[in-house]
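REQUEST FORM: STRUCTURE PREDICTION
Request ID: SP-0412
Submitted by: Lab K.M.
Chain count: 1
Length (residues): 136
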Amino acid sequence: MTAKHILSAPLISMIIITALVISSIAHAEDWLHVVASTTDVFEARKGTLQHGLLGTSPAVTMLVRIKHADDTFTFARYFVTVEDCGKGYGVVVTNSIQGKFLHQADYVIGGGSIACVIAETMCAVLNKPTTSGMSL
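STATUS: Completed
RESULT:
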């Protein structure tokens, strides 16, 4: 008997579906829940929190995935300046992953809005002493 006869179409389909499910579970672990609204879930990609520049100002940045209520996704890069983290308030800037400005929102640490929680997350990791730099 050859492999052609052993692997039926239903068995091949089941193997493909199993591989896709395992793959999606593995990739889901690459994202960390940050905050949710009534319509959107904001998740940070592990390993993307890093130092950068917002204009000419030193900043912290991270890649965020936003899952919408209709099961679609948007991806964006969020920025908060190091100075604003130190003050505890400022502006969260959102760019597309291609670097195009999308919008900005004011935040105050403890303020409770989506922008506040995203900034709190970024600033907390920025201010957390680690042996190997920032990590999220």
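NOTES: The CA atoms of residues 54 and 71 lie 31 Å apart.
Reviewed by: T.R.
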